[in-house]
Structures are given as structure tokens and as C-alpha cells.
Amino acid sequence: MLIRHVDEDDWQTVRDVRLRSLRESPDAFGSSLTREERFAESHWRMRLRTSATWVAVDDAGEPRGLVSLVQEPGSPEDDRHVVSLWVAPEVRRQGIGWSLLDAVVRGGAAQGASTVSLWVVDDNASAVDLYVRAGFTRTGERQVLPRDPDRTEERYVRHTARGGLIGT
């Protein structure tokens, strides 16, 4: 599996993987399939200009996973935020999630971030397990899930090599 940093010319691939992720895991993200199906090419290109994104591609050239890294509004200048992590169900538990997370941690360090953070819904045990095994730690910072006030999520953080700790 190749983890490839993509740019705005890869917008169709990113769109296709993102829409598949929303179809297959609709409760895992802060957006919806209906919303993102309406995005024009210009939106996808803008998204890729403003957030570092990586795609996992198999030996046949098929995209099998996705992750992006953003500067979250209101967060410290030396923190980057992981969004949209998704791995296709047929290739889960093969290390692709780890590889995508390693790519964003390295990407965050390259951008000067000392930490990389993410939010995970409390009832997503498999995601929590992946993040903890990949070196993320709980912060205790919690919030109500914006799209579902009956669910909560917690912020996890991992230090980059720039932040003084070598990743897993």
C-alpha cells in the first residue's frame, strides 16, 4: 500500500474516496453524504489547497484510505488537526490507518507543529483503539458532538518529533 500526498489536481480521487467514506461510515464524520455530494470541483480543489491530504493506494492503483490535516480554528498555532481519516472496510486491520496517521504526524512536524490532535466519538471503540495504539493520548477535553447532542467526543493528542517525542 502506497501512502501518497495529493494536491488539487487529485480532487476527483479525493472526492470519490471521501464520498465512499460518508456512504460507508455516515456516523463517523462531522459532515454528510448529501452535503458533500453537492460540492463543485472548485470546492474540492480549494479543500486540497488549504489542507494537506494523503490517500492510501493499493498495488492496482485503487484508493483505499484517506486522511487530511488542518489548522483547526481556535487551536494553538503549533497544533495541527487530523480530519477525515477513513480506511475501506475490506482492507482494515492491515496497518493502513497507522500509515495514514504516521503521514499526518510527519506532515504536522514538517509544518512546524509540535502536536497533532483529533476528536473521536466515545462510542467508536475501534477508532479509539487505533489512535491510542498509534501514540495518541487522551486529553480529557470533551464536547458534545455538534450533529448529535446525545453523543460526546474527546480530543486526543500526539506529539510530533518536533514536539520532543518520537512517534510510534
Structure described in brief:
The chain is an alpha+beta fold. Helix 1 packs across helix 3.
List the helices and strands and how they pair.
Elements: E1 2-6, H1 11-24, H2 33-37, H3 41-50, E2 52-57, E3 63-70, E4 79-87, H4 96-110, E5 115-121, H5 125-133, E6 137-145, E7 148-159
Protein name: N-acetyltransferase
InterPro entries: Acyl_CoA_acyltransferase, Bact_Acetyltransf, GNAT_dom
Domain N-acetyltransferase: 1-162
Structure description:
- Residues 1-162 form the N-acetyltransferase domain.
- Keywords: Acyltransferase, Transferase.
- This is N-acetyltransferase.
- It is a single chain.
- The chain has helices spanning 11-24, 33-37, 41-50, 96-110, 125-133; strands spanning 2-6, 52-57, 63-70, 79-87, 115-121, 137-145, 148-159.
- It has 168 residues and is α+β, with helices and mostly antiparallel strands.
- A seven-stranded mixed β-sheet has the order 1-2-3-4-5-7-6, sandwiched between helices.
- Helix 1 (11-24) crosses helix 3.
- The model is unreliable at 164-168 (pLDDT under 50).
